[in-house]
Amino acid sequence: MKRIKYKNKFLNTQLFLGFMWIAIAFLIDYNSKIDYISLLISLMYLGNYSYLRINQYITINNNILTVNGFRKKTIKLNEIKQIKKFAGDYIIYGNKEKITIDTEVIERVSLKCLQRELENYPINWV
């Protein structure tokens, strides 16, 4: 199984935002609803950080590319018809699927690994 990792800067931003919302919840003393909403937002950021740290951005296992996130998207590597590079993103078109990969949040080493893996297949690059 190959894992395409997030940049540490991206993950640390998620962690910082989670702690920032906790600080807001305890520092602002206006209304109890604001405190609960701030705590809920902080838990969402911290939960997202934990999920992203554990699962990473993309996994490639048994010729299946999976983009991990709120909604997992999968595509078989041998079903990829076209890959379009646009504005720093890879837009991958399959038979029925369309997956967008944001290359700005991927570590350099992992991005090279992803490119090497995709070049192993006869894919039309645009």
From TrEMBL:
The lineage of its organism: Bacteria, Pseudomonadati, Bacteroidota, Flavobacteriia, Flavobacteriales. This is Pore-forming protein. It comes from Imtechella halotolerans K1. It comes from the Bacteria. Keywords: Membrane, Transmembrane, Transmembrane helix. The chain crosses the membrane at residues 12-28, 34-52.
